[in-house]
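On clarity, I found the account of how folds are encoded harder to follow than it need be. What matters is that the chain and its backbone geometry are given together, residue for residue. For the editor and my fellow referees, an illustration may be useful. For illustration, here is how one protein appears when written out as sequence plus structure tokens:

___
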Amino acid sequence: MNESLETSFVKQLTDHQNIVHKICRLYTNNEEAHNDLFQEITIQLWKAFPKFRGEAKFSTWAYRVALNTAITLYRKSTRTVATVDFEKASYFIKQEDYNPEEEEQLKLMYQAIHQLNDIEKALIFMYLEDKDYSEISETLGISEVNARVKMNRIKGKLKKILNP
């Protein structure tokens, strides 16, 4: 690979590494697993980078590669991925003013999200990141209508989990 391709990749990854970290948090339950998944996603991004044509934003493309890598890795795994204890995961929920009611709601929401399947987690993650349905559909490789339908079903599923 030539140096300009490598330089371009490193810059893009540096600028968008938070995307990868967020996905790693969603699909792992400890720092070691997070670092392993981050490394695997970085490798997959690097392997695919020469084929990146810029038809989509780098962030959209990176979401797609990262989500596909995370989902594929954990589907292939014979072990089940344990959900994260809220207390252990709370390091990435930064709150300026402590609000016990809001913290309890976040705890319940994360517990509910961890009950979703891999695709549902990816969709709700992007929705909570304020991605519009066109970007969600492009990233996940589904139609915009399908993304909306799935999102409505996920919302219903989360309501059932949160209000049994």
User: Anything to note?
Assistant: The chain has a mean pLDDT of 80. The CA atoms of residues 19 and 160 lie 29 Å apart. The two ends are 55 Å apart (CA to CA). The helical segments are 3-27, 31-48, 58-76, 86-89, 100-113, 118-128, 133-140, 144-162.
